[in-house]
Amino acid sequence: MSTSGMQMWKNERQRIKHIAEDYLKLEPELIEELTQCKTEFGFFVRLVRDNGIVEHLKGWRIQHCNPYDTGRKPHKGGFMRATTVGRDMLRAKAAIMTWKCAVVGPTDEERIQFGGAKGGLCCDPLQYSESETKRQMEGVADEINPIVGPTWDSIGPDVAVGPKEIRAFVTRYSRLNKDKGIPCGAVATGKPLEHGGGGCPGRIMATGLGMHFVYEELSRIHPFFRNMPDRPRAIVQGFGQVGSAYAILAEQFGITIIGVSDIYGGIYNPNGIDIQKLSAINKKTRRIDSYPEAELVSCDEFLKQECDILVLAATENVLTEKNASLVKAPMILEGANAPTTPEADLILRGNNQLVIPDILSNAGGVTVSYFEWCQDMQGKFWREKEIKNELKRYMVGGARRTFQTSQKFAADLRTGAGLSAITYCAPALREKHGFKKSPKSLV
Ligand code: NAD
Questions:
Q1: Which of 5, 40, 408, 438 has its CA 20 to 30 A from that of 376?
Q2: Tens-place pLDDT, residues 136-191
Q3: Which listed residue (118, 134, 191, 392) is catalytic?
Q4: Which CATH number applies to 3-186: 3.40.50.10860, 3.90.25.10, 3.40.50.970, 3.10.450.50?
Q5: Nearest to 390 by CA among 262, 202, 132
Q6: CA 231 to chain centroid
Q7: Which of 377, 425, 381, 419 has its CA nearest to residue 402?
Q8: What's the 335 CA to ligand 1 centre distance in angstroms?
Q9: What pTM value is reported for the model?
Q10: Where does 206-361 sit in CATH, by number?
Q11: pLDDT in tens, 201-225
Q12: CA of residue 145 to ligand 1 center, whole Å
């Protein structure tokens, strides 16, 4: 069990408790429900490596809570492969998914009524061949089959799990459940579009696009943006599904990318990086350091580079009390889940740096996953234009509500987003369990 995972779950529970108890004065039994995970399923995948050696890889699928009593809407959350995967880290990330779904939506009532979940396999994805990775995902489907399903828990892409891995999972799940008469494809989103993969147009770019929609809306209404230049310069940590989508779309949103990093290190050029060229290099070499027209910097140095926006799109806990004070960017946009520890958050706030929090800014992924799930359940394909328009409505609504809530409670955006989410979930959960509302409770 990793200490940082334990710390993440402790931090997340404290944060929920602080919002639910101190701001919203919710009943203790409701707070207890919100700060626990309902289902925690541990398993081993038995993997025969290409060389015949057998490994047992530990994994979990965790369901936080599903406040909505609709009977058909599942828990939702990604499935990741990383050495940092552990039960506590997944608990924290499952809870984050509950809030994320409840933050976005075009109107106060119309939000994503999914419970939160997260899963993962503890392994170093770089050590496995394509066929071994496929067998890993088939093994995951075999093991978590009893606790997932289109109306119970639907997985999605995450670190080192993209369309290919999702396809392997869905194909196996569909074989295991072919006699049950259920729309098996809805057991996962982020499926590939091509070759009848059942995916949804726009899912690959959804998280990055959603981040731009949030930024755009906040730039219209948040006073902090008055000091931003007309053409802001951003550096992006992580060049995977989220980071590369954000960087590719930046140009059309009037943002210049001047630095990019991946797990091996960063590149920086204050005059701008050619993202098309970088993407081609990354596709070929699976890293970015052979990009010719930029200075090479270490992962640690990268976070300290001059820029207007630091985009965190790699992994959790990258800004801590040790390095937060070294960040020069006035604004931090969180594409990754939980990239900033609470201690780092305090330092950034103290230095008047604005953090646009994960549960709002990266919710575009789960929003388009919701559309893909609807598509599977209805057996009707959505067009890309329709998806982009709807995504914009969901993200703009979420950004506006987060800002208004933060203003109303004189709080930062992270607290505003948490307040907005819990204000939506808590009464639904109270109703579902038949709890009595305390006269002190504000919602
Ligand atoms: P990915 O595996 O596709 O890419 C991760 C990228 O980060 C890679 O370029 C990797 O080299 C880099 N990286 C990893 N550790 C790093 C480090 N310490 N320093 C610098 N770079 C590092 O993963 P992804 O799907 O893009 O997910 C990234 C983050 O976004 C995760 O926190 C994930 O939970 C979150 N997220 C993903 C989605 C999605 O749809 N994929 C949606 C919402 C949030």
A1: 40
A2: 999 999 999 999 999 999 999 999 999 999 999 999 999 999 999 889 999 999 99
A3: 118
A4: 3.40.50.10860
A5: 202
A6: 27
A7: 419
A8: 8
A9: 0.95
A10: 3.40.50.720
A11: 888 899 999 999 999 999 999 999 9
A12: 26
